[in-house]
Amino acid sequence: MPIKTLKSSSFHQSQSVLVGILSFLAFVHPLTSFEAVADQFLESGSITPVGSDVGYLLDTPMRLKIDLAGMWDYSIDGSGSGRVRVPAAYDFVGNVVLSRTFNISEEQIDRYVFQLVMYGANYRCEIYLNGDFLVSHSGGYTSFSQPIPANVLQPGSENHIRVVVENELDDRNTVPLKLQVWGWKNYGGILRDVFILATPKLHFRDVILRSNLGKGLSSAIVAFEAAVEGEHQIVSSDPKKPASIGFVVEMLDKISGESVGRSLLVPLLRSEEGWENPRAEVSLSALKLWSPDTPDLYLVKAFLVSVEGKQQTVIDEWDVNYGIRKVEISAANILLNGQRVVLKGVVWNEYHPTWGSALPYEQMEKDIVLIKSLGANAVRFGSHPPHPYMLNLCDRYGLLALVELPVVYSPSSILRDEYYTELAGITMKEMITRDRSHPSVLAWGIGDGFESSSEETRSFVQSLTGLARSLDDRPLYYASVMHEGDVCSDLVDIAAVNVYVRELDVFKRQAEQWKASHPDQPVVVAKFGTEVEQDNRNGYTDPLSYEAQARFYLQRLDALKSLAYDGAFVWAMNDWRGDRPALTVSTGDPLVHSMGLVSDRREKRLAYDAVRSVFRGEKFVALPSGNYSAAAPIIYVLSGLVLLIGTAYLYNADRRFRESLNRSMLSSYNFFADIRDQRVVSAPHSAILGMICSVALAIVMSTILYHYRDNWVLDAALSYLLPSDRFKEFMIRVILEPMQFILYFSLIFFLKLLLICLIVYLASALLRSRMYFYHAYSLTMWAVAPLLILIPLGMILFRLLESGVYVVPSLALVGALLIWVLLRLLKGVSIVADVFRLKVYMVGLVSLSGIVVAGFFYLDYTQSASEYLTFLYNVVRSSY
User: Fold this and answer.
1) For the chain, what are the domain ranges?
2) 669 SS3 class
3) What is the pLDDT of residue 784?
4) Which of 128, 137, 675, 753 would give a disulfide with 162, using CB separation of 3.0 to 4.6 Å?
5) Other Cβ atoms within 10 Å of 587 Cβ, number
6) What is the pLDDT of residue 237?
7) pLDDT value, residue 240
8) Spatial contact of 267 and 244, defined as CB atoms under 8 Å apart
9) Which numeric CATH code is attached to 342-616?
10) Of 547, 554, 565, whose CA–CA distance to 612 is shortest?
11) What is the Cα–Cα distance from 671 to 225, expressed in whole angstroms?
12) Which long-range contacts does 69-72 make (Cβ < 8 Å, 24+ apart)?
């Protein structure tokens, strides 16, 4: 969702007109598109690291990882095959089959049981091992593991794994839904680590940790609950001393490696289903608390041991990095270890032009260092769970993390669907169970920007919050875009809101209203930002300059501080590539969003230093204002002037043209009757008039769309109403280049006139008096004569639209002229065909309505247009 908006005084007045214009354009130029599949992979190829600082499933002496990173074979239907270094992201929508072989020794097969672990394969994958189906999984940003059945793996190097990946999202049944403008790039492929984990035959499936801090926060009791599965043969050397299996936990200081506490040995007991979950506790004194300022960690080692007398033999070991801290919500504040914390954060997007979303470990650490150097104490991950290593880095460097579901810009009509709620719940469970041991995770997010103003959505939020609280006790939030009318924020702990407006006064007003409406909750701005033009240093009077971006953050962060907000997240840390073309970008590429404090290649901008000065409480240098001033495109005045002079000359120089025009406007009945009676109307004059009116209409349409090119409502509606992204890219290009728009659409409108001529001619076969094509041609071209009024209007319309007073009258005049033209056309048909006029009006209007409705139903069927337009309307209504 972009941040540029109309001035608030004219915003309400123009939205319905904009949507109407878009609907007209969608149906005057219905293009089909062929989406070519580009055989392109962005390779990371990072090997899975080993040790105690990996993101997930730390290495222990009793376990083994068989890394499957490296070279894989791939094939794409109809697009060839080759080799690619996995992890890798592919930059197209489609199915890819990835395969490779790997080696397992006979000793390993005898000693271990195995499970396949994937950190992320987007969006949907099916996995086959040695020809046998193993598992399917949906969701590209959550990790999963799947036990491998016995006897599937074979000794040697001919074990074969095949992964079928497809990344197509749809408008109703995927999490996330098909991404809208200003979303992220939906890369496909095995984006993150993939390996086979070999564990002892009796092993931990999971260990859940919870801390109970004592008074004064100087001591704590850490409770552990383990889930154990598998079998282990207990052999006792002394029948008088039977052996048993126990569970024990030890905690070590992460830095020194010294033991700080150890639990009692807890016996492992059988249950009907397998093993009862053993529980243990470790008491700690002289406690080191985790916080962004002091990110102290413990290394937890959980052991399954075979006990024979006093001798203990380790069967399996589960290690996890763990920090002890207390997070609570009290008196509408976020408290960390008893102290109020104000979140100074950024939104991080998992993107780099070299690797796409398959970032290597080195780049992830560089990004965290950049964020920490900024003076931030928090990071919000861009609307989906990150690579688990990012949370490991947040633990070590000291950054609070907000991790959320990819439920983004979702209409309530979809959220009420039980199937969608179930999908979101599966993702929620996978997200929390993987990441709940990280001390850096401050809160879990339900989603971002979904429609939260209906009771249907409230049921969705209730279901997800209930599930989240059953799995973990951290605070919950979602990022609302419904500034007024939100009915779900009382169900979560933190009231977070996205603020997209550029105008400072509107920003302050919306921030004040949100805080006033949530007096009993911490309030956070979850996303706010502004776009820049690369290397633009024209001073802050240029809204796309580096200086303007820096000033934007200085002013708004100061405003939020004066309002005592509990935090804010700058949108964004880095530039990113989106999945849908956006009109409101200024990079020259409608898919690249340059809103970062650093570029996509991590080059710092002036705004980075500005935000750092605020986060660190430092003074920032004065910003140059520059001498930028916005100017209206001269092409509208010049083209209108040329058209006006040419029309005036033709009117005065050619008597027949003048008489025909006068009669068509002042005595239309007699004029169309003359056409019926085959009195000659010059065919060249008809063509000239049609072309002049087409150019005039193109100038006016270009003016309107160019004026609103920064409007996010227009941007979103284009995606909902146009038949394809490729057509939208074409529209973006010509909207931003008015001369191209005028040339293209003058021709398009004239061809549409010829098409209407043909339709009228063919339809006349159903009427009493069949027309000649000349009749249909003449009446159609002269029916549009009122559009000549658009010539002078087009010359001044841009200036009129800049004033809120004249927006509605100007757009209403354009609409009235188009309706007049339609009625003149139907009137001409009734006169020339000698048919009762009311009958022609009814048939014509019904037919036109049928075409529009059929087109809209097609868009609704293919991309749920009605639901998303309703969502867009509700967002606008509740936000402005």
Assistant:
1) 8-34+632-879, 41-200, 202-322, 342-616
2) helix
3) 95
4) 128
5) 18
6) 62
7) 63
8) yes
9) 3.20.20.80
10) 554
11) 90
12) 69/45, 69/193, 69/194, 69/195, 70/45, 70/100, 71/100, 72/98, 72/99, 72/100, 72/190
User: What CA–CA distances, in Å, run from 148 to 127, 134, 807, 840?
Assistant: 11, 7, 66, 71
Question: 676-690 burial, b if ≥16 CB within 10 A, otherwise e?
Answer: beeeebeeebbebbb
* pLDDT number for residue 8: 41
578-579-583-587 Cα dihedral, nearest 10 degrees: 40
Closest CA to 576 of 355, 345, 872: 355
Angle, to 10 degrees, between the axis of helix 418-435 and the axis of helix 455-471? 30
Distance CA 595, CA 574 (A): 7
| Residues 6+ away with beta carbon under 8 Å from 497 | 479, 480, 481, 483, 510, 514, 523, 524, 525, 526
Candidates 346, 396, 341; CA nearest to 371 is: 346
Residue 373 CB neighbours (<10 A): 13
The domain defined by 202-322 folds into: Immunoglobulin-like (2.60.40)
- How far apart (Å, rounded) are the C-alpha atoms in residues 387 and 75? 26
Q: Judge contact between 193 and 87, C-beta under 8 A.
A: yes
Q: What pLDDT, on the 0 to 100 scale, is given for residue 765?
A: 74
Which of 541, 533, 548 minimizes the C-alpha distance to 610?
A: 548
User: What CA–CA distances, in Å, run from 70 to 46, 468, 822?
Assistant: 8, 36, 64
Helices assigned H by DSSP within 309-454: 361-373, 388-397, 412-415, 418-435
DSSP string of 519-585, one letter each residue: TTS-EEEEEE-----TT--S-TTSTTSHHHHHHHHHHHHHHHHHTT-SEEEES-SB-EE-SS--TT-
Neighbouring residues of 680: CB distance < 8 A, sequence distance ≥ 6: none
Residue 324 DSSP code: B
Nearest-angstrom CA–CA distance, 20 and 34: 27
Task: Identify the three-state secondary structure at position 219.
Answer: coil
Query: First CA to last CA across the chain, in angstroms?
Result: 15
pTM of the predicted structure, to 2 decimals: 0.89
Burial class (CB in 10 A: 0-12, 13-18, 19+), 721: buried
Fold match flag (41-200 vs 202-322): no
Please name the amino acid found at residue 25. Answer: L
Task: Give the burial class of 208: count Cβ atoms within 10 A of its Cβ; 0-12 exposed, 13-18 middle, 19 or more buried.
Answer: middle
Q: Degrees (nearest 5) of the Cα angle 774, 780, 785? A: 130
> Please, what are the averages of pLDDT over each run of 10 residues along the chain (880 residues)?
43 44 44 43 91 90 96 87 95 94 95 97 97 96 95 93 96 92 93 97 96 92 96 70 88 95 95 91 95 97 91 94 96 96 98 96 97 98 93 98 96 94 97 97 96 93 97 97 92 96 93 96 97 93 95 97 97 94 84 95 97 96 88 88 95 93 92 83 92 96 93 88 89 94 96 92 73 88 95 93 87 94 91 83 86 86 86 82
At 846 the pLDDT is 87
Task: Classify 684 as helix, strand or coil.
Answer: helix
